[in-house]
Amino acid sequence: MLHHELSLPVPVLVVEDEPLMQNRLKEILETIGYQAENILFAQDIKQAKELLNQHSASFALVDLGLPDGNGNEFIQHLKEYDDSIAILVISAWSTEDAIFAALKSGATGYVLKERDDLEVMMSIRSVLRGGAPIDPFIAQKILKHLDLEEKKTGQPATNDSINKILTPREHEILVLVSTGLSNKEIADQTLLSRYTVESHIKHIYRKLSVCTRTKAVDTARSLGLLD
What we know:
This protein is globular. β1 (about 10-15), α1 and β2 (about 40) form a beta-alpha-beta unit. The protein has two domains: about 10-135, Rossmann fold (3-Layer(aba) Sandwich); about 140-220, Orthogonal Bundle (Arc Repressor Mutant, subunit A), CATH 1.10.10.10. By secondary structure, it is of the alpha/beta class. About 55% of the residues lie in helices and about 10% in strands. The protein has helices at about 20-30, 45-55, 70-80, 95-105, 115-130, 135-155, 160-165, 170-180, 185-190, 195-210, 215-220, and strands at about 10-15, 40, 60, 65, 70, 85-90, 110. α1 (about 20-30) packs across α5 (about 115-130) and α8 packs across α10. The N and C termini lie far apart (about 45 Å). It contains eleven helices and seven strands. The chain has a five-stranded parallel beta sheet with strand order 2-1-3-6-7, sandwiched between helices. A two-stranded antiparallel ribbon has the order 4-5.
């Protein structure tokens, strides 16, 4: 149990139409420390919106292929409801379009359904700790996409590609990081809290698969995300 490690945000909303996957996620969440009464299940976007109105939500696990539409529609709805809500996409879809669309809609992280329970659990735990886990297979596809684009055009990755990986706010903070500003100085300059800045920087680290500020700047420059 992780009660001592994490303060679990409740309730958690699971938007998933497959009964087997619902049961699997329920068991994983209970292993992490969630009580059954704090796990809400919706089988489609309509039901998810109704549950959100009735119970609110502090955390969401969202599938993309739903009976009444694409899960990205609900991710956007969630971000409008509460921009700070953590959203982990758990999907079978691994195409670049699906991945980029989910991240652009506001998903915090993205993990493939084919991963084993331990890997899915680690992704959920990462989100609960403020991380932004991206499935390794997906991270490789993103980097390959940028590399191919650069080879094709002979130019660094375009702004459109930057926006597919980093949100405008993350890119703004990464630029400030590259100038050598501390988190506190970045917070003062952007009028954000230090906690919010740190959260954005963690997301940047995960998306670029790095663990230090220097490496983040170096990697971003090599990908054409920074001048």
